[in-house]
């Protein structure tokens, strides 16, 4: 116990010692286990970095070119597609779905993948839609694509139970592997760790960029290698038009000899609130809409397309080699100012009315910075991007449902 007290004092976390005085032995044991596994040096550095704001300068930003599929000749497209089909057919392709979040913004208290949307010809769960997409690919390419599903410590058991109850939607169970997303502790505006009502240090997911370390920790990368997988598509659960086994995207990566490929859609206007793929200081990255100067956001090319218009839509492909490298990399953390209840030194729960703490996340697109080049395939919004983010309005079940139904009217469900 003395060791942990000294550790907390060293990092200015004495408030936890006072709170723990009111805990029983079992409660103390649980919080000590958390402290034992925490990188306090990293937490201290994150707090120190809070006051540092990166300034994006126009001269540091360059546009990046995407391949426009409709500009290819039939012969060029056939060559690329055949490369992709060969990889899928030979069992060298796998899919990972990120589903660690809850459907909070949808007014849904369960994991987002369990949300049911009223599409034609019958309502379907988001997990069911992903599963159907994979099964169509399996039938088309005469394979069974390995499927890795990232959950969170909070929703893992519920998701696994949901799959069991639904018989994995007839997907081969031995090709499905669940793994948990990592977490990061929350700190208040003075760098103090928060204790929650459950008498544990409050944590939140470490962001979608944490998927690389999580895949390694939970044995997914080893499993992929045993299966001979060379390419892994990583996508989110909430785009119901997501085409995971896209031979054009896979073939493009193979043809260009890159380790990362992504599909974009052109922004619907300069003010759309999406991240844009570009080059920053010569490296591929994504710039947030709020960081892009207005003049650059509105600039267009000779065809009238936005020069900075390649939206990152969480549609990414990685070689197994780069996944190994990224699993050992330290992606930068991004901060978010949030409102969180906490336990004070008298073990009383305080519920603030204003943001009082910081959440730290890594983003998957920061992985682009670890390679010299990536391949970008420009998709079409109406057939590639139907996200479900909000309860109503833009990117809601209603808008996604219309895009989904319109697409399948022309493509036969």
Tell me what the structure shows.
The protein has helices at 2-10, 14-20, 25-36, 40-49, 74-89, 126-141, 156-165, 211-217, 220-226, 247-256, 294-298, 320-327, 381-384, 397-409; strands at 61-62, 67-68, 93-98, 116-117, 124-125, 147-151, 176-180, 183-185, 187-188, 203-205, 231-236, 260-266, 276-280, 283-287, 310-319, 334-338, 342-343, 349-350, 357-361, 375-378. With 413 residues, it is of the alpha/beta class. The protein has a single domain (54-409), classed as Alpha-Beta Complex (Spore Coat Polysaccharide Biosynthesis Protein SpsA, Chain A), CATH 3.90.550.10. The strands form six sheets. It has an eight-stranded mixed sheet with strand order 2-20-12-15-11-3-6-7. The protein has a three-stranded antiparallel sheet with strand order 1-13-14, with no helix packed on it. A three-stranded antiparallel sheet has the order 9-19-16, with helices on one face. β13 (276-280) and β14 form a beta hairpin. α5 (74-89) crosses α10 (247-256) and α8 crosses α12. The termini are far apart.
């Amino acid at each position: 116990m003395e060791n942990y007290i000294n550790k907390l004092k060293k990092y200015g976390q004495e408030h936890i010692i006072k709170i723990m005085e009111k805990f029983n032995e079992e409660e103390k044991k649980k919080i000590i286990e958390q402290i034992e596994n925490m990188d306090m040096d990293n937490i201290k550095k994150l707090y120190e970095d809070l006051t540092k704001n990166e300034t994006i300068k126009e001269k540091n930003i360059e546009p990046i070119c995407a391949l426009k599929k409709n500009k290819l000749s039939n012969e060029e497209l056939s060559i690329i597609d055949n490369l992709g089909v060969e990889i899928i057919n030979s069992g060298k392709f796998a899919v990972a779905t990120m589903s660690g979040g809850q459907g909070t913004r949808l007014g849904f208290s369960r994991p987002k993948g369990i949300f049911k949307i009223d599409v034609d010809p019958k309502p379907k769960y988001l997990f069911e839609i992903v599963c159907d997409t994979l099964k169509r690919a399996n039938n088309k390419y005469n394979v069974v694509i390995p499927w890795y599903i990232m959950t969170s410590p909070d929703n893992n058991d519920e998701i696994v139970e949901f799959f069991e109850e639904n018989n994995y939607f007839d997907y081969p169970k031995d090709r499905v592997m669940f793994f948990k997303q990592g977490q990061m502790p929350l700190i208040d505006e003075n760098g103090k760790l928060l204790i929650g009502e459950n008498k544990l240090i409050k944590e939140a997911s470490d962001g979608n960029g944490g998927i690389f370390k999580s895949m390694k920790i939970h044995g997914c990368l080893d499993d992929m290698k045993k299966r001979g997988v060379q390419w892994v598509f990583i996508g989110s659960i909430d785009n119901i038009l997501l085409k995971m086994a896209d031979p054009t995207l896979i073939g493009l990566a193979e043809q260009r000899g890159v380790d990362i490929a992504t599909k974009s859609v052109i922004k619907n206007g300069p003010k759309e609130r999406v991240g844009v793929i570009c080059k920053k200081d010569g490296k591929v990255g994504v710039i947030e809409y709020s960081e892009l100067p207005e003049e650059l956001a509105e600039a267009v090319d000779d065809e009238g397309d936005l020069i900075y218009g390649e939206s990152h839509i969480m549609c990414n492909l990685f070689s197994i080699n780069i996944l190994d490298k990224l699993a050992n990399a330290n992606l930068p953390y991004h901060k978010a100012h949030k409102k969180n209840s906490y336990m004070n030194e008298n073990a009383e729960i305080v519920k603030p009315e204003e943001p009082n703490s910081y959440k730290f996340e890594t983003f998957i697109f920061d992985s682009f910075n670890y390679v010299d080049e990536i391949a970008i395939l420009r998709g079409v919004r109406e057939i590639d991007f139907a996200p479900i983010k909000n309860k109503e309005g833009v990117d809601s079940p209603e808008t996604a449902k219309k895009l989904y139904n319109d697409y399948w009217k022309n493509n036969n469900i």
